Amino acid sequence: MANEEDDPIIQEIDVFLARSLLEKLYLFQYPIRPASMTYDDVTHLSAKIKPKQQKVELEMAIDTLNPNYCRSKGEQIALNVDGTCTDETSTYSSKLMDKQTFCSSQAASNVSRYAAAVYKKGELHLTPLHGILQLRPSFTYLDKADAKHREREAANEGGDSSQDEAEDDVKQITVRFSRPETEQARQRRVQSYEFLQKRQAEEHWVHLHYYGLKDSRSEHERQYLFSQGHGLAENTELIKSPSEYLMMLMPPSIDEENDKPMAPSNVLSMAQLRTLPLADQIKILMKNVKVMPFANLMSLLGSGTDSTAVLRCVQQVALLVQGNWVVKSDVLYPKDTSSPYSGVPAEVLCRGRDFVMWKFTQDRWVVRKEVAAVTKLCPEDVKDFLEHMSVARINKGWEFMLPYDEDFVKKHPDIVQRQQMLWMGIQAKLEKVYNLLKEHLAPKKQEAQSAHPLLVSGEQRVNMAKAKVKQNYGQLETELQRQKAELKSNNTTAKTDVPSIRIKEEPVDAEEPMDTSAFGGLNNGLVNGLHGAEGCAEPVNGHLPGGCGDRVVQELKAFVSSTFRKQFVLTLSELKRLFNLHLASLPPGHTLFSGISDKMLQDMVLDTGCKQILVPFPPQTAASPDELKVYALWEAGDTYDQHRQVLLEIFSKNYRVRRNVIQSQLSQECGEDLNKQEVDRVLK
Fold this sequence. Notes:
alpha+beta
């Protein structure tokens, strides 16, 4: 007790478990770098990996202009490796050792105890590591130099002999047939070192593309280090109930388990289901039901279940489609599985099913032929996708099986917003994979979502229209009488107070009263296509009420400034994508959720010291208007401001320029000769 009093608790930090990069996150341990090498974006030339062996090779550049670099030794090594002639197979094309290869080895066989941690805003997010790899220099170029030396010696020795001596005599050849291999001999051969080395050499290298620290793709991937939906409630994976702790401390004996009646492997009773953790319960239910409203899910989980925890767990295994939850494709088609109909791998099936789910976010109806034409999958697989979440209607297509859950959308606008961000990312991936056309992306015009589709005759429609007109006419008549009474009272007051002023009264048409419902048809609660949070003030005509505008401007300016400090040139399309990612990482109720229009975003870019670069793209380009708007940071306060401005002026005259033209123009405008690495940094 005395020790605890001397060491009080200063702060409690919430810990979350992120699962998005569960089997994809590796830790690379670089060696202590020499003075002539820096591990930055420019030095990473190429990378490749053997996934099964967890083996990586990185090729990194060496700064040959560094004063610590020995140029004579670099030239000698290049001469020993490649010889005097240089061709495409040469290791060092510049006749100088200007790069170094690093090979990896596993630092630990069991990495289950290690995780990568990110601390942000009083929260600690942990992602388990899939592997820890130590990078060490590779000296295979020395083996190549030895091979070259032996070839030269063999050529010198063979040159002295005459052609007659070089001719081989005819020799008798004895042919032998090997005996059948026994099982024991085969096992010894399989376990031998030579066989294992051969198997490892047979695995093909997978070439990788390196993205720097400030690249937008790197920022996008870093978002996966945070637990999805961490702002909703505490992470229940790290919290156990008393009964679960008791089960872990005192598991049931083997005799008790044997006494239980046997059930089929694919059948799980509700009693057995409720003994599992909440995340596993939701995963099993969604995997079996596939499409479910949130209210039905809560009823199956039993009374007393925290709805906030359920919301956080269901987002890990399902996606929101028309207010209902649909199980994710990777839950139905795990990795290393294939289609029972066509044998297509799980990755292709997941893309096709995601396309069907995305189509249902755009419309209630989907045509099977259209899905098959885009995904190029067999009809059985496409039908399997559609049967998961829709019902076939004769001569119409496939209709989503559940009605639009408007209650859930109104109660949880933050969840809806976050899911829309996820669907935007899925749509971007589908556009690249399937090369979707505009008719695929544009949602079809449809009436308001209804709970049940109804067939209404023409006479019924006329009667409904008449009843609606009578109802509206009564309301308008009452409103008109009220306005006339107010107008009379105002005129009487004005004549009493200011008798010398005559107010001209305009005639009021009694048959066509003015609609005085303020913005009744304009304000539909949508801002940039997203539902605003309940209770937040809506922007009217681009202006924010109260003091909310100053806070929004400050937050938006901070985002734009930090973004252009990391990436000096951005298109409007890329800037909007980064802004949507930024919104997804913000907590619910943040001021930026009040609605930011495209014009406000562009004005803020110009106010933060950026300029629009009018790049003359070719007229036949397929880029969207947002991709043709290019903005650049004009002054960053570093040593490359003048070079960057000259480079932007060059690209404002032509969208494609040769490197030697850029280098000569930079040298001419800046009055100094730039080497290759300095030009690379400016272009980067």
